[in-house]
Design goal:
Layout (H helix, E strand, L loop, with lengths): L6 H15 L4 H25 L2 H5 L5 H28 L6 H11 L5 H10 L4 H30 L6 H21 L1 H10 L1 H25 L2 H4 L2 H28 L4 H12 L3 H11 L6 H38 L1
């Protein structure tokens, strides 16, 4: 397989560079932040309208698989990142407090929907299970993520934000638009289904806007002065280590419980991935106005790019294994 950096990745890097040298400040920064808030609410409105009732409630017949994926996403992953945040008290030059908080936030995020399903399909894995689990992860993630973050922050003694304000904003900016959009699905679902590419572009535009706005605010607050190069390299290494750990752990659990190879592909991809599309909009709500926002979202941005590259390699290997196994069975 040939690999290249996709256009969206370059755009995200461009947003960071642009914010570094030409940050939006003052009234422009305030206007950009307001536009981002409206764009995020509209994004979740569209997701609510696009997600069918069947996708929300389906998958109950394969409950063991979904329990396993959910446990990896919302139990084992949060537990794995908890010690990482503690490093901010031991080696603050390598793990600043806001960066440690970012790893806590990475741990409680839902699974990535599009890439989990895409790589499961590429691997010839159990695509229906991946669709149900990834969709359910994101629906429940809107409710679970802030509560799990509160639990981890209170356990580790890190972080500095108002969880009451964050929960209020989550309800008003995320859950309410999602519910209204889902209620209007009979009228909007067909249009959104016919224009999936347009909706995908809108998702990307919102993420780009959030990244530029977030890093503009953080650069103005001294992000690069407070985040040394070794901390960035350390964060990249930790993200790679977490991804490999959970891919191996997911494979071990699948084989321990006797799932098929197709199910294994779905669990490995859905259970190890974290959603940038959900993570950045929720971060904007949870950490609104936080001076260290750019540092907080750095782990999810690093993790996302690593999971894209590693996932593509692994999906090809699973595809070869599954096609070989099917050929042997047919023969």
């Amino acid at each position: 397989m040939k690999f290249r950096i996709d256009t969206f990745t370059l755009l995200l890097l461009g947003a960071i560079v642009l914010a570094t040298f030409l940050p939006a400040t003052g009234q422009a920064g305030d206007a950009l932040a307001t536009a981002g808030t409206v764009a995020v609410a509209l994004l979740f409105f569209f997701h609510g309208a696009a997600l069918s009732r069947e996708q929300i409630i389906a998958g109950a017949t394969h409950w063991r698989l979904h329990i396993l994926i959910t446990s990896l996403t919302f139990i084992f992953f949060p537990l794995a990142v908890l010690p990482i945040n503690g490093l901010s008290n031991i080696v603050p030059s390598w793990m600043p407090k806001d960066l440690g908080l970012g790893f806590l936030y990475l741990g409680v995020l839902p699974s990535a929907v599009s890439s989990s399903i895409a790589y499961t399909a590429m691997a010839r894995g159990n695509v229906p299970a991946a669709i149900c689990s990834a969709a359910a992860s994101n629906v429940f993630g809107m409710m679970l993520t802030p509560f799990l973050l509160l639990l981890l922050v209170s356990t580790s003694g890190g972080g500095d934000f108002s969880i009451a304000e964050a929960l209020k904003d989550i309800i008003l900016q995320l859950l309410l638009p999602f519910a209204v959009g889902h209620a209007l699905r009979p009228w909007l679902g067909g249009f959104l289904g016919r224009n999936e590419t347009l909706m995908s572009r809108y998702d990307q535009c919102v993420i780009w806007l959030i990244v530029y706005s977030a890093f503009s605010h953080s650069v103005e607050s001294g992000l690069w002065e407070n985040l040394p190069l070794q901390a960035i390299l350390f964060a990249i290494g930790l993200c790679l280590g977490l991804l490999l750990l959970f891919m191996v752990f997911a494979k071990f659990l699948v084989r321990r419980f006797g799932f098929s190879l197709e199910d294994e592909a779905a669990v490995v991809f859905c259970g190890s991935k974290k959603s940038l599309a959900s993570g950045l909009p929720m971060a904007k709500v949870l950490f609104s106005g936080h001076p260290g926002f750019g540092m907080i979202v750095l782990p999810i941005m690093c993790y996302n790019q690593i999971q894209v590259i590693v996932g593509a390699i692994l999906a090809q290997k699973y595809r070869e294994k599954i096609e070989r196994a099917n050929a042997d069975t047919a023969g």
